[in-house]
Amino acid sequence: SFAYFTIKDRLPQILTRVIDTLHRHKNEFFEEHGEKGVEAEKRAISFLSKLRNELQTDKPVTPLEDELPDAALWNQYLDYQRNLSNGNGEPSWFQSPWLFVECYMYRRIHAALAQNPPIDNFDVFKEGKAQNFFESQEAVITLCTYFQELLKNIKDLDEKQLQEELFKLLQVSLWGNKCDLSFSAGEDSSQKSSPLQSLENMIPYILVNDMEKLWSILVNAKKRNTEKSNVRVDIILDNAGFELLSDLVLADFLLSSKLADEVHFHGKSIPWYVSDTTKHDFNWTIKQLQSANHMWMSRCGINWEGNLKKGVWVYRDHMFWTLPHDFSSMAEVAPDLYADLQKSNLLLFKGDLNYRKLTGDRKWEYSVPFHQALNKFHPAPLCSLRTLKSDTQVGLKPGQGEQIQASEPEWMVNGKYGVVQFDAAL
């Protein structure tokens, strides 16, 4: 299975990269923190080398020994996995659900640094995320330019034209999800070509296309909206780099077209899955745009900083997004987050990991309804924008998955197909 390949090959590669990154920064740690920095780097590397060995030799998954705020929840979850195995020994790296051990690895990487001050705030994935952004520069310029030109006459667009523009930017945000560093084990995954040119040709690769439903939910929310209540859209972010930029453009369009009054972004509270967006990545991206020597890039950055200051954009992170739990347990594990999401008119979940957590990462029949796979997770109307990079997919027409499988055995994991999949949460 793809899960086996991931645990056997991709995860050790990612750990090796992390260890190399720490090695390369040794001098920097020494300059900043003296001997203490070098000692911390050595301890972190030995912790990570041990982790890599545990993974490769299929050792049992051990409880977390750190004092970080989420440790107790992780260890409870490990107990839960133990009980699932019905006494068939301890859960180990190759004998456990893929989603669990993959999340567990990233949590252990975090612990390796968090437990070793003074380098405890070092993001081992930061360079890769920055590189992805800079290598996608042409696509960034194209998208910022297109968007700023669009804003000039957005007030004159009729409903049909607004809908067309929304669909275009939803597709850019969908295909932006291809730029995923954990998928390529940290290899180059930047957006090189124009993100707008090939949209028409990509439509056949959207296996579930519920864009019309998104349009009507936004338009109806607008109509129902009284003076007192704002239309709120939440974007649960995935990757930093070009994908994040495509999400920010989409968010700005929602505000500028008056389809939404506020957008809430949800990122990760710790470095996660190589390229996932943290608060630092979010702010860094806006600052990079502001200071760019390209007129439309800097215009985007300045406007977006303004949106944050005015409070019409809100960035937040929550520990729950970096726990191993499916979203169906959010109401129980993180009731505060669930209650917050219930205030939204529309939740947009970006990317593959969010999709796996929405559907419990199970080997569903392809035609099982999305609503059923969500397993009672319905805080608000929600939509997944996801390119397929793992072998779970629901909500297809009968026979649709089998038909693609016959001609393309890798269709679920090669990032070539996408879904814009909606659930009304009723």
From TrEMBL:
Keyword Hydrolase on this protein?
yes
Task: Output the InterPro entries linked to this UniProt entry.
Answer: ARMT-1-like_metal-bd_sf, ARMT1, ARMT1-like_metal-bd
Q: Which GO terms describe its cellular component?
A: nucleus
| Sequence ranges assigned to domain Damage-control phosphatase ARMT1-like metal-binding in this UniProt record | 6-404
Q: What is its EC number?
A: 2.1.1.-, 3.1.3.-
> What cofactor does this chain's UniProt record say it requires?
Mn(2+); Ni(2+)
What is a GO molecular function of this protein? phosphatase activity
Biological process terms in GO annotation: DNA damage response; methylation
Which Pfam family is an annotated match for this chain, by its short name? ARMT1-like_dom
Asked if Metal-binding is a keyword of the record, the answer is yes
Which keywords does UniProt give here?
Answer: Hydrolase, Manganese, Metal-binding, Methyltransferase, Nickel, S-adenosyl-L-methionine, Transferase
Which reaction(s) are listed as its catalytic activity?
A: beta-D-fructose 6-phosphate = dihydroxyacetone + D-glyceraldehyde 3-phosphate; L-glutamyl-[protein] + S-adenosyl-L-methionine = [protein]-L-glutamate 5-O-methyl ester + S-adenosyl-L-homocysteine; beta-D-fructose 1-phosphate + H2O = D-fructose + phosphate
Protein's job: Metal-dependent phosphatase that shows phosphatase activity against several substrates, including fructose-1-phosphate and fructose-6-phosphate. Its preference for fructose-1-phosphate, a strong glycating agent that causes DNA damage rather than a canonical yeast metabolite, suggests a damage-control function in hexose phosphate metabolism. Has also been shown to have O-methyltransferase activity that methylates glutamate residues of target proteins to form gamma-glutamyl methyl ester residues. Possibly methylates PCNA, suggesting it is involved in the DNA damage response.
Which family, according to UniProt? Belongs to the damage-control phosphatase family. Sugar phosphate phosphatase III subfamily.
Q: What is known of its domains?
A: Subfamily III proteins have a conserved RTxK motif about 40-50 residues from the C-terminus; the threonine may be replaced by serine or cysteine.
Q: What is this protein called?
A: Sugar phosphate phosphatase
Tell me the organism.
Phaetusa simplex
